[in-house]
Amino acid sequence: MHHMDTADDRPLRVRFAPSPTGSLHVGGARTALFNWLAARHAGGAFILRLEDTDRERSTPESEAEILRVLTWMGLDWDEGPFRQSERDDIYRECIDRLKEAGAVYAAWETAEELDAMRAEARANKRAPVVRGRRDHTSEEIAAFEAAGRTPVWRFAVPLPGETVIDDMIRGQVTFDHAQIEDFVVARSDGSPTYNLAAAVDDMVMGITRVIRGEDHISNTPKQMLVIRALGGEPPQYAHVPLILGTDRKRLSKRHGAASVEELEADGFLPQPVRNALVLLGWSYDDKTTTFTLDELVEKFDVSRISKSPAVFDLKKLEVMSGRYLRAMDPAEFADVLVGYLEGTGYFDGKAADAPDLARRTAPLVQRKMSRLSEYDRLAGWLYRPVEFEPEALAALQEDVKTSIQCIGGGLGRVEVLDDFTVDNIKDALSDQLHIQGLTAREFLEPQRIAVTGQSISTGIYESLALLGREESVARYRAALALLAESWQGGD
RNA sequence: GCCCCCAUCGUCUAGCGGUCCAGGACGCCGCCCUUUCACGGCGGUAGCGCGGGUUCGAAUCCCGCUGGGGGUACCA
Length: 491
Fold this sequence. Notes:
Elements: E1 13-16, H1 26-42, E2 45-50, H2 60-72, E3 79-83, H3 88-100, E4 104-107, H4 111-123, H5 138-146, E5 152-155, E6 162-167, E7 171-176, E8 184-186, H6 194-204, E9 209-213, H7 220-229, E10 236-240, E11 243-244, H8 260-265, H9 270-278, H10 293-299, E12 310-311, H11 314-327, H12 330-343, H13 354-365, H14 375-379, H15 390-398, H16 400-414, H17 422-435, H18 440-452, H19 460-467, H20 469-488
Helix pairs in contact: 1-10, 6-7, 9-11, 12-13, 16-17, 16-18, 16-20, 17-19, 18-20
This protein binds one RNA strand through helix 4, strand 7, helix 6, strand 12 and helix 11.
């Protein structure tokens, strides 16, 4: 029952075939990853093909974005990118061959007739499949042509009969031909449809295995029919379960961060994204949850892909991302952080030395963040005058008297420190909190808020040292003044 | 409606008839560490959808039900 993912007699050739109608979503990215891993694992070829037969919705921008994201993820392709829009002659030749073989027929039904046909079948609780009329007289056809009509070409699905997919993940899946309509293979303008183009390309490109989303499974028998009618042998199929949002519906834009582009903008690095994606529907064993790319290439096996759909949990990605960031070499982390901030325009409108400041703060934020976009939440206070977060200010005002004592006590030590180093600041403040008989948490939190305006930030000692004595003292005084005001105000 | 698929903690999953009164990870809760938020360490919480079979024995096999997902275009 369990197929082993071993290469058969032919070298493995897989493909990723997105349609360039938007940015690459998480599901597509995982499909690409699975295909790439299968290819690299087996030493086979990974082919990239853009399915842009829908001229209306396909855009060059989308294509460029998909290529860019694949590259960002570290997924390189061996052949392509091929564009179906540039392979029209191949499809037309195959359509001609199907006509010669009598595998397709001209269908003249109007949209209204088709609708009526399907509605009637539905009303009678039958499958709403279209079977075109094939008994038109030559007079009727002449009349259609005289009226300027051109037919679509439908595949004559053999009846009775069935097509069985021997799916690597699902086992045998059988489709009764009675349930498969005579699908359109060539539109009335002669252009190929998806089911024709995809089947032809898989055959012509020598694809040996198709790994794609389960949403395509009902297309598979149609494509197998086309390939066989053309004298080809269908590839192996592996239909992977879909990725769902937290509402258990297929993941889409409205679930937020549904595209790789968004994950990148949110400050996630390719390594954790890959790691999180590969674990949606695939597992290696009962324990391992982090893998390097090399380990994935070595261990990936289609036979271990799950049959049931998986809910995408951003929280889990965050955890993996945080761990990855913390494990990075500090210098590399600094490079990546500054690069990310530059790329998102973080330094625009800031002082010329802002990138340099960011680099110096990198060690202070590395252990604290789960994604690069959290930088501002941690260190943003360094780049601008204090702005109190409402909750942080509220925390201070909860017990104004104590807050003033803490901040005043801290100020008293800080303003007289000659050598304004992290160690000296730490010693002075530690001493002061002893004197005031407070816990570290009680004493240090007000300092943090006074200086940064935030309840979460870089470490307080480092923060003060970075700010310098003069600025630190100024911020302490400002906070004190603000609190004194609200105290007198009576609260 | 019709066709196809799926079903283990809240989530991702291990499990392929006995070694499972179900293991890991994330989350959540508690404790510890760092005289700071964070990080880290330790412990806890929580699950085989239901009903029938088969079998000495079922989370694992079969049937039904229920629930969920996908498809149903001259889109891909």
